[in-house]
Amino acid sequence: MIEHWPLLGLRLRTPRLELRLPDEDELAALADVAARGIHEPGRRPFLRPWTDVSPRDLAREVVQRHWRRRGGWTPLSWALELAVFREGDPIAVQDLWADNYATLREVATGSWLGLDHQGQGIGTEMRGAVLHLAFAGLGAEHARTASFVDNPAPLAVSRKLGYRPDGITRDVLHDRAVVSERLRLTRHDWDSRERPPVTIDGLDPCLEQFGVDPAITARPCVPEG
């Protein structure tokens, strides 16, 4: 299948983690992780209401979301939903997505992490891995993210990785207004600090699927502001 869908051969590795597309058994195991919980009951740190459905329905949604993102992939609009493995077990999902990437060279990220694995620096490590893919592998100029203003953990991860404030977004969740803080990381800020090591394998055959000309990754960083 890698010959037909090269993304199946893409691997990101950090000192503790491997990020890649899961096979069907691993996807089922990942759905079980989500069903056991990704945040405390009663909290709503995401726009998606994770705790408003049964564990069974939540697990099914994890599987369907993964299939939708693979099936809807085009070079103009793509979403890479990577499973995060620690010591061979899937524990999280780290997303990287973009629209009109060839023109904008901008990506967005999102993630979730099983409750049993939180508070260990894994969220920072797995986001750092996909940012390395974006900036070092795909030649990105910008990465953006957003988190509720009362959800300090992902905001702390973003600041640790060098993101800067980029305004706010207001949405409706359960008939009330919620505010998210937007953050943005430029290539200049990414290049300006030391990062933990990340290795990428299997990227070259995937570049066309990302809408990337291989020459784009060699373009120099242009300082901003």
TrEMBL record:
Endpoints of the signal sequence: none
* GO molecular function term, any single one: protein-N-terminal-alanine acetyltransferase activity
UniProt keyword Transferase present: yes
**UniProt key word Transferase:** yes
* GO CC terms of this entry: cytoplasm
List keywords of the entry alphabetically. Answer: Transferase
Listed Gene3D superfamilies: 3.40.630.30
Q: Which InterPro entries match?
A: Acyl_CoA_acyltransferase, GNAT_dom, Ribosomal_N-acetyltransferase
N-acetyltransferase domain: residues covered: 17-186
- UniProt-listed PANTHER family: RIBOSOMAL-PROTEIN-SERINE ACETYLTRANSFERASE
Please state what the protein is called. N-acetyltransferase
Q: Which organism is it from?
A: Micromonospora endolithica
